[in-house]
Specification:
- With 222 residues, this protein is mainly α.
- The protein folds into 2 domains: 81 residues, no CATH class; 136 residues.
- The chain contains 14 helices and no strands.
């Protein structure tokens, strides 16, 4: 089946599964798309399982400003044809937390060059690019990937900077990565607590809830 025919079939299934209440709720929460069918994730996964991974199909789906198309693109994109320059194009196109989180989970974490991209994106000043860097780092840390001393120092510096950022999603994604890092071992937990005990962190009201959540998760290791 040609790519256009595959997309037509996918859109037909999405329309049959659409949920107007869920779509409206997402809009009210700030998740704005050109089109949002409100299809629940389990159903999107069912649709994805009906199709083989296909580079051309995934690229075409990503270009559609449709919530479900972008989610499916991350599920249907083969890793071996997803080159670093394409990853940069995709991440620059991400405009909300849902797509950032799901694309990191469904695709980015499996890329052979994922660690390099995590550090590249963490250092970016654009909100969702930076957030994807931390979310990707969190996925890798959760799988047990360890950093050398130089990478660790850079990660902690970037995380501290993001925690002090006025941008909520940068702070939130950095806190997720810090938590995964701290959960790896006692030494990492101590380093995270040292960061969270810094005066500038305690003085920042926006960080308090994130701080308490991280501490609660990792302090049993101390």
């Amino acid at each position: 089946m040609e790519t256009n025919e595959l997309i037509k079939e996918i859109k037909t299934q999405l329309r049959l599964s659409m949920n107007g209440v869920a779509s409206q709720s997402m809009r009210e929460k700030g998740l704005n798309y050109k089109l949002n069918f409100g299809v629940e994730l389990p159903r999107i996964k069912e649709i994805a399982r009906q199709f083989e991974q296909n580079h051309d199909l995934a690229q075409a789906l990503w270009k559609e400003n449709i919530r479900e198309s972008k989610i499916l693109a991350g599920m249907l994109q083969p890793v071996d044809s997803f080159y670093p320059e394409i990853a940069d194009i995709w991440v620059e196109d991400i405009q909300n937390a849902e797509i950032a989180e799901l694309t990191c989970m469904n695709l980015f974490q499996y890329l052979p060059y994922a660690p390099a991209k995590a550090f590249q994106w963490m250092a970016d000043e654009r909100e969702y690019v930076q957030a994807c860097g931390f979310l990707l780092a969190a996925r890798l840390l959760g799988k047990g990937v360890e950093m050398n001393e130089r990478a660790e120092e850079e990660f902690l510096d970037q995380a501290l900077s993001a925690l002090l950022s006025p941008v909520y999603f940068s702070r939130k994604s950095a806190s997720v990565a810090l938590k995964k890092y701290g959960l790896q071992n006692k030494g990492n937990a101590e380093k995270v607590i040292n960061i969270l005990d810094k005066e500038e962190i305690h003085a920042n009201e926006d960080v308090k809830s994130l701080f308490e959540n991280i501490r609660f998760e990792i302090e049993y290791l101390l």
